[in-house]
Amino acid sequence: MSSLEEKTIATEKIFEGRVISLQVDEVELPNGNKTKRELVKHPGAVAIIALTDDKKLVMVEQYRKALEKTIVEIPAGKLEKGETPDVCAKRELEEETGYDCAKLKLLTSFYTSPGFADEIVHVYLATGLSKKENAAGLDEDEFVNLLELTLDEALHAITEKKIYDAKTIFAVQYIQLQEALKK
């Protein structure tokens, strides 16, 4: 099979924001033809499946402007410049939930929309949770309600479209699979 690589000929920066940047690349296709690709560049993010000792999923309810609605999600956030995913996961868990964890394990990483974006999300499992005194707070433009859901409650929230994003659905299905494997 021949190479499927698209060679970049030129890049035009369109927008540089706080969270993302946008660019248009002119590329040469494997057959020699040329076309343009609109790309979203993102620094990467973490998502945390935080489980309490009584097996409840720690989640946040948050308004998402892009969706014009409030949804329930696992704690998550973007990597800061030079920050490792492990450090980011512990920071985001504390900022969004007030929890610290005794154990943090990387489960997987995945690209969210590889057709037009390079965002990668690193998914962690956090256990041995404890509430932190003087926990770091939310960012000044961040407002969340803290929730703790059983697996059944989380599955119901998916059917009700209260949980409606890929990382959180992955988290709930991961816990569901772990429970099924125990039987």
Features:
globular, NUDIX_hydrolase-like_dom_sf, 3 helices, 3-stranded antiparallel β-sheet, alpha+beta, Nucleoside Triphosphate Pyrophosphohydrolase, 7-stranded mixed β-sheet, 183 residues, magnesium, single chain
What does this structure look like?
This is ADP-ribose pyrophosphatase. Homodimer. Its cofactor is Mg(2+). The strands form two sheets. Strands 4, 5, 6, 7, 8, 9 and 10 form a seven-stranded mixed β-sheet that branches. A three-stranded antiparallel β-sheet has the order 1-2-3, with no helix packed on it. It has helices at 85-97, 151-159, 166-182, and strands spanning 7-16, 21-28, 34-41, 45-51, 57-64, 69-73, 76-78, 99-111, 120-131, 144-149. With 183 residues, the chain is α+β, with helices and mostly antiparallel strands. It contains three helices and ten strands. The longest helix has 17 residues, at 166-182.
Radius of gyration computed on alpha carbons: 19 Å
Oligomer: single chain
How far the N terminus sits from the C terminus, by CA atoms, comes to 44 Å
Q: What's the CATH architecture name of the largest domain?
A: Alpha-Beta Complex
> Which whole number gives the mean pLDDT?
94
CATH superfamily of the largest domain: Nucleoside Triphosphate Pyrophosphohydrolase
Secondary-structure element pattern, one letter each:
EEEEEEEHEEEHH
- The CATH topology of the largest domain corresponds to Nucleoside Triphosphate Pyrophosphohydrolase
Q: What is the strand tally?
A: 10
Shape: globular
Largest sheet: 7 strands, mixed
Helix content: 10-25%
Uncertain spans: none
